[in-house]
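Project channel, design review

CF: Before we commit to the Proteiniclasticum ruminis constructs, I'd like one complete example in the thread so the newer folks can see what an input/output pair looks like. Taking Uridine phosphorylase.
RD: sounds good, go ahead.
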Amino acid sequence: MLSSDYPILEFDENKEALIRPEFLKNRYEPISERLLICFFHETIEKLLEREEISLHFVLRGENPLKIYRFQDQDMTLVEGRLGAPAAGGYLEDLIALGAKKILFVGGAGVLRKDLAVGKFLVPTSAVRDEGFSYHYLPPAREVEANLDVASKITEYLKKSGIDYLTGKTWTTDAFYRETPAKIKKRREEGCLFVEMEQSALMAVAAYREVEYGAILYGGDDVSKEKWDSRNWRDRGDIRVGLTELAKEILLVL
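CF: and here is what came back for Uridine phosphorylase:
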């Protein structure tokens, strides 16, 4: 275990933790190796209405997680959870139950005013401004995405004629502390988007040696002196389209 004056930097490479997610195998049936994490609640509701997905089972706990499966593909769908600990913890559970090829779709704030609502970003790295990832990887400023998975995602987007960007995202634990100075610094180091999960999910996937990738779409604008929501939560057409696209991409991972 690393020694430090700061607990967050005391990384321990020992894999023998007291509590391990493998115990879930005795309580739940396996899920598909292909897992789609969707952050859009209303999109999941539409898929249920269309009978394109059905409830498989509920992962019980203080905050139950509904596990869905697609009717026409061997693929699992879950609704994403906000923040690194919730997102990363549930990813651990889902990997233990069989997930090996994982794709995330969700929105994120943009750090450049020229990035329109709906602009797609395939993250290639993330600034680790959260605490969760430091329990999975040694301390470092950034975590690199699985570039093989990112390449497969961008190849499919390019083939489909869909405009996108690749680059760095900023993962933070505290959206109420996205201060002007921090935003300026993150922009200067090359971050395009800001969100709350990616560095943690990349870290868990690397630690557990599974394939993970993400497609983020540009939402609210935090690049200016005043926050601009840009009504990004009302862009249901983008969200449904992105989810359907992600399902197609997941099949080629």
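RD: helpful, thanks. Strands lie at 34-38, 53-59, 65-70, 76-79, 101-110, 120-129, 142-144, 164-172, 191-195, 211-221.
CF: The domain at 30-250 is CATH 3.40.50.1580 (Rossmann fold).
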